[in-house]
Amino acid sequence: MRSKIGDSISLWINNILVKDMYLTTEKKQELFKSFGSSEIDTGSAEGQIALFSYRINHLTEHLKKNKKDFSTQQALVKLVGKRRKLLDYLRVKDIARYREIIKALKLRK
């Protein structure tokens, strides 16, 4: 059984971790609701592209501050590749949906 001090410390740590999380469940649901057909539709290409774009933007900002974080740089390159594959798939399947997601996320200049 935990002591009161242990409980308060674990509660404090949980609060810190939740505040520092850049991608919460609520944010994911918001992204999927905005770009997918519903907030529980996590498999749509548009929803996944939006999620990858959000993560890519976050990692890009992180790398601007931490230039020597090579593991994050490698993860960023992988994410960009995954997003590229999904965009290619969407362009082949439905060009109108592809153009909509490009415009909504401002991926092209």
Q: Describe it for me?
A:
- This protein has 109 residues and is mostly helical.
- It has a single domain, classed as S15/NS1, RNA-binding (Helix Hairpins, Orthogonal Bundle).
- The protein is built from five helices and no strands.
- It has helices at 4-20, 25-35, 45-65, 70-93, 95-105.
- The chain is flat and about 60 Å long.
- The N and C termini lie far apart (58 Å).
- The model has no long low-confidence stretch (mean pLDDT 86).
SSE topology:
Blueprint: H1 4-20, H2 25-35, H3 45-65, H4 70-93, H5 95-105
CATH class equals Mainly Alpha
What would the average pLDDT be, to the nearest integer? 86
* Biggest β-sheet description: none
What is the total domain count? 1
CATH architecture: Orthogonal Bundle
Termini, distance in Å?
A: 58 Å
Compute the CA-based radius of gyration: 18 Å
Order of helices and strands: HHHHH
Overall body shape: flat
Strand content is under 5%
Count up the helices. 5
Structural class: mainly alpha
Low-confidence stretches: none
Give a short synopsis of this structure.
With 109 residues, the protein is mainly alpha-helical. The protein is 77% helix and 0% strand. The mean pLDDT is 86.
Key terms for this structure?
109 residues, mainly alpha, Helix Hairpins, flat
